[in-house]
Specification:
7-stranded mixed beta sheet; Nucleotidyltransferase, domain 5; 17 helices; 21% strand
Length: 483
């Protein structure tokens, strides 16, 4: 038996084929573009996702004979996107993506509505799905009137695969329509956003079978079937499945374009005032919380771009011992910030510049600023009594050993680096497909990856980094007052 994980990203789709022991057989990717017709807008044509999937499947089928033994599929995807369908199942307009900020006014209004934070467990951010539909209602009333179903990107792929409108709990928790504690659609939340339950997909857990692969696709893909399609997951929940973070005390730091600090939770512990996200896990009876900073490696990429370097060149001179915090301070708010500020308008800054400031000083400041931005999320999680004694570090930024040592010291916890291999959202999705098809337990499938190295905090520098973090925290009100 083999199993397929589909990771529907913002810039491309990745598919991973694994065997019954969870070992990777092969993978491939296809890319597509988002469009930005106005400032703050970010949209995508769902047809591009289907074309990418069809092409990727064709390559896997033709390259790996084991594909013929496919028995389970899981889909993970970028959260919050609004894909609007009419009564015939046709797409009414381009999908409004997670990083679209046009609905900031509608988000603020919903966030101030009675019971919304209490039931959803979260602030209503402009990127969430409910305010997007309010924007459509106000600015595209003819589209809103025709909207029979609203699907998140993952649910849209589920519908293509199995012919039914089905979504999982983890992805749906980011809509502001789900009662996250009770794991069901909330009539109160739907009503606040002028929506109805019959416009929502059917809910299942991420490990459950959402349906079976359509006969048309069985024939097209050269399969005999049956092939189970799992409920799937939002991208970060799937990444947690990929690294085995399912119980209290398990979590990860992800250094990607954005930065994520995620902690699995055994219970429901909402804290919307902290700007943490509190979502259902893809695993039944589990939740997770995460802090999100919007510009993590994006900060380093920005510095590389304006200095004519690449990120590896910038950090290559910092591979020795960890240094004291530098005199230059960087606030990593290039695109606003989520946790803990919930501020879409704040922008970044350098302070402490001098005539002798070097490119290396700026690089250190960027790495330290991102580390302190993650510390903000760490402190917010601690305030909810999350257990964070050790974390796994993933994402492109984790290739910098200096940066990992810096973040470990700023957080005061060891960071473990997995051995090379698969441990991301595509693997998590494939694991969900395996469980849906076989009925295996989550504990037997969602194991923790082998660790290449664990980097401990520098005990001699924890104090000075604590002091520098205090100065970082004090800088936000000052820069906010200027901007």
């Amino acid at each position: 038996m083999t199993f397929l994980g589909i990771d529907l990203g913002t810039s491309g789709l990745r598919v991973l084929l694994i065997d019954e022991d969870g070992r990777p057989i092969g993978a491939t990717e296809r890319h597509y573009q988002a469009t930005h017709p106005h400032p703050g807008w970010s949209e995508q044509n769902p047809a591009d996702w289907i074309a990418a999937l069809d092409a990727a499947i064709e390559e896997l089928r033709d390259t790996y004979p084991q594909f013929a033994d496919l028995r389970g599929i899981g889909v993970a995807g970028h959260m919050h996107g609004a894909t609007l369908l009419d009564k015939n199942g046709d797409v009414l307009r381009p999908c409004i993506l997670w990083n679209d900020t046009r609905s900031h006014a509608q988000a603020a209004k919903l966030d101030g509505t009675d019971h919304v934070r209490t039931l959803s467990g979260n602030i209503v951010f402009p990127g969430f799905t409910a305010p997007k539909l309010e924007w459509v209602r106000e600015h595209e009333p003819e589209v809103f009137a025709k909207t029979a179903k609203v699907l998140l990107p993952t649910a849209y792929l589920n519908a293509y695969l199995c012919g039914d409108y089905v979504a999982d709990m983890s992805d749906s928790a980011g809509t502001s329509w789900l009662d996250v504690g009770e794991r069901c659609w909330s009539e109160t939340l739907l009503s606040a956003g002028h929506m109805h339950q019959d416009q929502m997909p059917r809910l299942v857990e991420g490990t459950e079978e959402a349906g079976q692969l359509r006969p048309e696709l069985l024939r097209k893909w050269g399969l005999t079937g049956p092939v189970s399609v799992a409920g799937g997951a939002g991208d970060n929940a799937a990444a947690a499945c990929g690294i085995g973070a399912q119980n209290e005390g398990q979590g990860f730091v992800s250094l990607g374009t954005s930065g994520v600090l995620l902690s699995a939770r055994d219970g429901y512990h909402p804290a919307p005032e902290t700007a943490l996200h509190t979502f259902c896990h893809a695993i039944p009876g589990r939740w997770y919380q995460m802090g999100v900073m919007l510009s993590a490696t994006d900060s380093l990429n920005w510095l590389a771009r304006i200095t004519g370097q690449n990120p590896i060149e910038l950090t290559s001179k910092l591979d020795g011992d960890l240094k004291n915090p530098g005199p230059v301070r960087y606030l990593p708010y290039l695109a606003g910030e989520r946790t803990p500020h919930n501020d879409a308008e704040i922008r970044g800054s350098f302070t402490g510049l001098a005539a002798e400031t070097s490119r290396e000083d700026l690089t250190r400041a960027v790495l330290e600023g991102v580390a302190f931005g993650l510390r903000d999320s760490f402190e917010a999680l601690l305030a909810t009594n999350a257990k964070l004694d050790q974390l796994i570090a993933i994402g492109g930024g984790s290739a910098s050993r200096y940066w990992i040592r810096l973040i470990a010291t700023a957080l005061g916890v060891p960071l473990s680096l997995p051995k090379s291999g698969e441990f991301g959202a595509a693997l998590g999705a494939a694991r969900l497909g395996m469980i849906a098809a076989t009925g295996a337990s989550t504990h037997s499938i969602m194991t923790v990856p082998d660790v290449r190295e664990t980097i401990d905090p520098d005990a001699n520098l924890i104090g000075v980094f604590d002091e520098a973090y205090g100065a970082f925290r004090a800088a936000y009100p000052a820069i906010k007052s200027i901007q």
